[in-house]
Backbone:
């Protein structure tokens, strides 16, 4: 089978067959300890470059179209779960009672 070689995206001196490039990317990525962009998982960069990339990521406008002209860094965090004790159906004006 005629399988041309391509250069790896993280280290151009790595030459691998085109059919094995995906496996090589995963292997090489672990060695490089690259960070994943919060806007596009295909963007992988080292820590020093990540802050600049996040502020200027071209995929950011697809997620936050209103922030196209503003240069802001969005702090991503996990939402606070609603605990059972914090939610009382009796006090919720939108709560429906189906048992009547």
Residues:
């Amino acid at each position: 089978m005629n399988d041309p070689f391509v250069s790896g995206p993280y280290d151009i001196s790595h030459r691998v067959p085109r059919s094995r490039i995906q496996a090589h990317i995963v292997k090489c990525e672990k060695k490089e300890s690259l960070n994943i962009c919060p806007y596009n998982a295909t963007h992988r960069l080292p820590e020093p470059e990540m802050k600049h990339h996040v502020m200027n990521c071209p995929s950011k406008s697809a997620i936050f179209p209103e922030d196209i002209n503003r240069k802001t860094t969005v702090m991503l965090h996990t939402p606070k779960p609603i605990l059972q004790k914090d939610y009382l159906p009796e006090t919720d004006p939108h709560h429906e009672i189906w048992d009547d």
In short: Residues 39 and 60 are 6 Å apart (CA to CA). The longest helix spans residues 21-32.
